[in-house]
Inverse folding.
């Protein structure tokens, strides 16, 4: 919630589009839109220089598939335009110094606050994940390894943990691709169970921006693409009066 309201604060007043008129996704030029480097793009979600721990880095709990695919995408950040997004323990660490919109206020700056996907501190027990974003293609890849604290059926991840991971990846993607704000809807079709401790790959694409909403889709599958775990579509609010959007 804090993440999305921070996004709302940053985005109000931009991208004004007449209701009913489609907004064609532009080809994103990182130099003109975000600055002269990939660091300036990432800085929209985090501090450019920080000593805070990045939880989206390999640790001893990562399975071989996750480690190998992580290294593959890390190489792609050098040659194919992908950007690895850092992940800190709280959205207070990602975006600071902004006022919350709609009369909302944070009572205090709690040092123990944690984003839900980083609420389990023990390595490998909860959400192990890393998100890579491609600015010009408006897409993301999330490598997700559910730990035993996310168990639903014995030995398999709870469906809600995957829904949470989809929502988190949608949020980051929507914000970087088109100033996405609040999640309006998630429509998920679960197809197979994810074994605890194994890798699930979330392939997220921005489909279109229309009527001040950003439409996103996701296919979650095994690394070899032989098993589809779930398919999902969602909508994110863009920058205009959220009350009029939420009422539609």
């Amino acid at each position: 919630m804090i993440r999305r309201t921070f996004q709302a604060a940053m985005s109000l007043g931009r991208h004004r589009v007449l209701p009913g008129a489609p907004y064609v996704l532009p080809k994103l030029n990182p130099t003109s839109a975000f600055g002269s480097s990939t660091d300036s793009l990432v800085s929209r979600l985090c501090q450019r220089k920080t000593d805070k721990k990045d939880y989206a880095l390999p640790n001893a709990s990562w399975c071989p598939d996750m480690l190998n695919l992580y290294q593959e995408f890390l190489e792609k950040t050098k040659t194919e335009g992908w950007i690895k997004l850092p992940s800190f323990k709280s959205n207070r660490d990602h975006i600071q110094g902004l006022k919350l919109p709609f009369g909302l206020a944070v009572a205090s700056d709690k040092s123990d606050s944690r984003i839900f996907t980083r609420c389990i501190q023990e390595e490998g027990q909860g959400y192990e994940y890393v998100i890579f974003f491609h600015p010009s293609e408006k897409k993301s890849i999330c490598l997700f390894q559910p730990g035993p604290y996310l168990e639903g059926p014995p030995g398999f991840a709870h469906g809600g943990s995957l829904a949470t991971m989809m929502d988190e990846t949608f949020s980051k993607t929507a914000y970087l691709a088109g100033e996405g704000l609040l999640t309006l809807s998630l429509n998920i079709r679960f197809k197979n169970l994810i074994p605890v401790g194994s890798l699930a790959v979330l392939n997220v694409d921005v489909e279109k921006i229309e009527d001040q909403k950003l439409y996103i889709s996701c296919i979650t599958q095994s690394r070899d693409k032989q098993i589809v775990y779930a398919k999902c579509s969602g909508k994110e609010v863009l920058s205009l009066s959220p009350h009029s959007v939420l009422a539609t």
User: Anything to note?
Assistant: The beta strands are 22-23, 83-85, 127-134, 139-146, 183-190, 200-210, 213-221, 228-237. DSSP finds seven helices and eight strands in the chain. Residues 53-238 form a domain with the Thiol Ester Dehydrase; Chain A fold (CATH 3.10.129.10). The longest helix spans residues 159-178.
